[in-house]
């Protein structure tokens, strides 16, 4: 102890901490970097430069300036590592168990009432099934795993592998631990793809104690190792496996009354009295038969026997005549039921002072107890290393992996009685001790890795200055020991502590290490962010060597980004090559079926200016005039959509090209006439030069004739619609009477209309009122059309001579509809006698229909 305390100050100065000059650190790092052993005359070098292989990179852990990373040089690639033999696996398994404690050996505890569970577990594992052993803390899961390991030694080709799952929420670190246990690959950490390929060939019985994950994370672990049979020990609070994992469930319950009494007698070393047997029965009912409670109860009874002087040599311990200590005349009673259910306070009060000091340290570190070799320096007693065995015999400690921690519920019970009052001071003391120990050159990285949980607990409870120093010295050791989960945690804690303490140089170091770690694990975005932060901080400090190291690592990040972008290019849509290609290539994916024409327009065609009549254009099949026989057949058309006859090509389906109209209008249409001109051009513009016709499309005179015919039909249909609109507008422009105020009078009874004559007006005279009397029979000739209106004048009314017919509720395609709908009133001229005014409404908005006057019979 004195030797350790005397050398602590000198070793801390040479540890390369924040307060160490850079020249001293550089000179001390020289022997370690060359690989030569330090001379006995000089102090040991603080820097431990370790070279690792991480995937495709070579990682050089440099505690002075930060880790350096570079690609693997040609010819330095390692082959596939070999698996360990049985002797090497035995050595590895012994190293994974808790250490042997100094002092008298602890007697083994019998495994009672677990024979049925043991046989079932061995049988399921022998069949290659994975089992989840569920039981509360203190139910004896670890003892049952030891028995299963002894029975399953020869089942699998790779033997039995023991792994601790305490503190692991992701399957990645468990896979790396399994890989390092089975394969002989020192200083190598494969990347994820290579790791999955190698662990797939492992065939072993894996005993995973203290499991803390389930669901999809556990499924990933099981899928990665299909040749392994797992025995997963977990508590009921742990997330359950998924339904597709096919994991068997075995539950551990409490012991019976006879088994509890037998366990209590085995720990006490003598048979129980009647009073103790009754007390054991009450304790079994209160604790539900947990074996841990009876291990602690046996310790309380042993302490009671010692206090009651039940040993044979009690006379040697009696006080002398001159001693003032009175003789103990009273008898220590049995513990109460409450003390048996929560025995930590009573047990701690009867152990040695060094053991109580160790309990205070464990409470300050969140339940983690340091290795027994650290207790003399932490407690201040040279014999404090024997306190671990004393606490373990009392049932206050439980083994977890390669270390010990407080048993379930002990930390809470001790904190309630004041053991946590000095937690901050104890954590600061532990952090300073670990800062010296982890930075010492005689400590190998593997020892630091086994002490990772206690180091991280001390880092979490220390102040910012002590935490920054500890993180600075412990981070390179964790990196060299391949315990990268602890490496990342200590780097993040150190960066936060350095930021709070104002240590910019240390903050830049931690960000640099985080960037290197992210690059080794393939997280390129995180690596870029961390390295850029480190380069910025080191640039502010004018640290040239650190800036160069950061830029080299950042160059590897850029190379990985470029390689990733080249491996998976993004999906892009190409723009069309030319506008003509849009007309000739972009055809619908499925052949269009010609639609049945919904309107058949029959009109008398005359030379009517389309520009003047388009604004008053109204389409409606109800008032279409009859067709004159003198009109050519081209004037009467059936309007139908033009369907392209070009077969569909693969290029037309996949390429997205815009639709270019035939009439290349510089501005979008704003009026109704322009819309009709775009849809039915009166004089079609020449189409752009067509692309080469595919070989599958037939070309010839038949195709050209069909196209000209469709153009002529479309033009004739457009002229018919224009003429119809002109006639309707002429009919609506003049009226003989004003419309009634109350609305149009609609007659639902059709009447027979008599032929009427039309009185024409000259183009320069205003419109006159229509005559009241009926015109003469020879006024007009069937087939004559109205004169063309002059520009700027309102054309006269041109009534129709077509007799009205009975309207149909559902007009058939191609026939005009005469269903009356009252939207706009249309006056009716009364010629002789009593006339019945009738008004027919248009079939759609914006459509007017004029009817001829009717004469009563």
Structure, described:
This protein is α/β, with parallel strands linked by helices. The chain has a 5-stranded parallel beta sheet, with helices on both faces. It has a 4-stranded mixed beta sheet with strand order 3-2-1-6. A hairpin with a 2-residue loop joins strand 11 and strand 12. The longest helix has 33 residues, at 701-733. Mean pLDDT is 73; it is low at 1-46, 578-640, 642-662, 695-702 and 735-857.
Helix tally? 30
Spatial order of the strands in the main sheet?
Answer: 5-7-8-4-9
Low-confidence stretches: 1-46, 578-640, 642-662, 695-702, 735-857
What structural category characterises the helix and strand content?
alpha/beta
The average pLDDT score comes to 73
Q: What gross morphology would you assign?
A: extended
Number of strands: 14
Radius of gyration, taken over Cα atoms and rounded to an integer in Å: 50 Å
Termini separation: 137 Å
Helix fraction bin: 40-55%
The main sheet comes to: 5 strands, parallel
Question: Roughly what fraction of the amino acids lie in strands?
Answer: 5-15%
